[in-house]
TrEMBL record:
It comes from the Bacteria. GO terms for molecular function: metal ion binding; siderophore uptake transmembrane transporter activity. It is a multi-pass membrane protein. The keyword Zinc does not apply. The keyword Zinc-finger does not apply. One of its GO terms (biological process) is siderophore transmembrane transport. One of its GO terms (cellular component) is cell outer membrane. It comes from Chryseobacterium koreense CCUG 49689. Keywords: Cell outer membrane, Membrane, Receptor, Signal, TonB box, Transmembrane, Transmembrane beta strand, Transport. The lineage of its organism: Bacteria, Pseudomonadati, Bacteroidota, Flavobacteriia, Flavobacteriales. This is TonB-dependent receptor.
Amino acid sequence: MKANTTEQPQKKDNEFFVHGNCSSCKARIEKAAKDAGANSANWDVETQKVTLDFNPAKTSADKILKKIAEVGHDNEKYKASDEVYKNLPSCCLYDRSLPLGVKGELAHSDEDLAPKQNSPSKADHLGKTLEEVRLLKIQQATALSKKEAGLTYNIGSKELLKAACCNLSESFETNATVDVSFSNAVTGTKQLKMLGLDQKYTALTKELLPEIRGLASAYGLNLIPGRWISGIQLTKGGSTVTNGYESVTGQINTELLKFKNENETSINLFADANLRTEANITSTQKLSEKWNQSVLLHGNGTFGEADYNDDGFLDQPKGNQLNAAYLLNFDDLNQSGFGSHFGINFLKDERIAGQKGFDKKLPQSAQSLYGVGIDISRIQLWNKTGYVFKGKPYQSLGWMNQFTHHEQNSFFGFRNYDGQQNTYYSNLIFEGIFGNTNHKYKTGASFLYDDFNENYLTQNYKRTETVPGLFFEYTLTGEKYTLVAGARTDFHNLAGTQFTPKINFKYDLSPKTILRLSAGRGFRTANVFAENQQYFASNRQIEILGNGGKIYDLKPEIAWNYGISLQQEFQLFNRKSMIVADFFRTDFQNQVLTDLDASPHKILFYNLDGKSTANALQTQWDFSPAKNFDVRLAYKYYDVQAEYLSGKREVPFMAKNRGFANFSYSTNKNDQGGFWSFDTTLNLVGKQRIPDTKSNPAEFRLPEYSNSYATLNAQIAKDFNKNIRVYLGGENLTGYTQNNPILDAKNPFGNYFDGGMVYAPIMPTNVYVGIDLKF
């Protein structure tokens, strides 16, 4: 892929192009310049220029640039020796193949966006202080960061366009790290799983603010439109303490579209064979030199009544969603040092499911058909403001605030569930250094307020959680290693004082071999109703076996996660190739178990009394056998077990063995910028344990384990130019569907009805088309 050869900005006589990456580079370049006699030197990571002030009688630009090269930084007059360059810290290894004046991460012409956290300019330090993911252009659709101490994948827009990606739950179809599960045969909801554990143990954030948690757990993935996403940052295992205490298996952060280099308005239209339709309008505009905005609009509707297995139930719910967001950004970092980001999001989502012919306008008691209705309203307001200290680009202060109101009104046959959640979140972060930028730290305070009001059947559950917290994180950067160690203390009014340490360590065994270690603790309060709605469409009665805790009479969940990974790059077919192998283990000290085995007529919730562990092994190989042809192969092994009341068992609906293959090919661009792209993804899913149904009559029993199966998704897209793109795709092209996904579907008000025993696709092969237009 060719480097971006756009015209370089004009420079003054005392400005010179110098390659570099980060704050360590900045300190090294400026020190070398002063050692060579400069009165002052200021190197900027964005422009890749150093501005020199020196006395020509004492030194010269030639001497200064020669000294800068001697410490490892190529410039417009001298090139560093290979030996010195290779001995730079990994974060400083800039791309030497790029022309001077072009940043490494910004060098590629494709508009492939992916988030990144660590960079030293004023703008980037504001982003770090706000914990805001910066959007960078990278070559790969999905890139594993070599600089981060944690195992962090940056998923760009190119990756998101490989599949339909109508919402966040579909954004990981071509990613091997996250498993997308089919969790309900009636409501059609999907859930993510990472490291062998449910979605609730992964911190899901938007703009690095709390997003999918609490009452939004079941349906929150459907509430972030795919066309609004500019990039996703996925961290496995240990994550930073600055973002809170709830992360156990990692963090997935979503960044919304923002203004880049020019005004842009996009329209996306989508439809599939099951009459699911969608429209998206996004517009990013520069308002003035310091202000820009994003307007994001989304609407979808599902109008078809699909029942391919003829069980009388809709295979997917009908309904619609209206979703709108407005982002306003202020950037005066280079002048006053201030920057700010404002956002507001409002949505309304309505779904109807159940038996064909059910009329939502009539009460359930007035009709014999079984129905499900889910209405969600949500509004969010947020702001992130930061200040970078004058003359100290490594020192900054940021403050994030967000208010969320989430409301759900729903019924599942005669079972009603309504809930309201009001959340206020605030996080104040100060970033600085000890001596030099090899010793960085972040410290600050956070506050979380959650007010829950839930009604299940005739019972009301209210609680208010207030959680002030303090945190500190230290980053040590050496020539071949990076250590990030942090801890936080949170004073939870219901869960008591909780101490949460986390550590990430990266060591470069060689420039192409990276070893990572991580360990950390997380805790959370379970929302047993909201997080288990996939079982509401059944005859199962809920029982909470309390133990005196203050949340549903249960104690908070506590877990430790440990991880090790090895990243190896090498050449194959004279092209870059990479293998990553990682292993993570999660040990629960306390867990709220969802027990479906005690009886097929009950769901039991209780705190763990014994051991609960999850072992997750993954190997992934990325390579390019030919130009424009990328291959990603992965194998995952999960061993997830818990000690239930009935004894030690495998956690249900978790396949021990999974295989993954993604193939992506694109043609060369023509003179108008047009090209074809082809993508296909194969998922192999091994057998899964199914909850015990032996006490049911024979016709309503399920086997102990499911069958293995495979799914295949594919898409063909044609970019006519940079403004017009059309695509045609197919999902579940193998046509595999689960037999009998709903037990006793003919008698939904009977004792054996159960729509929650889902382990495989319900919908057969589906075909979709779409068009993207840019202005």
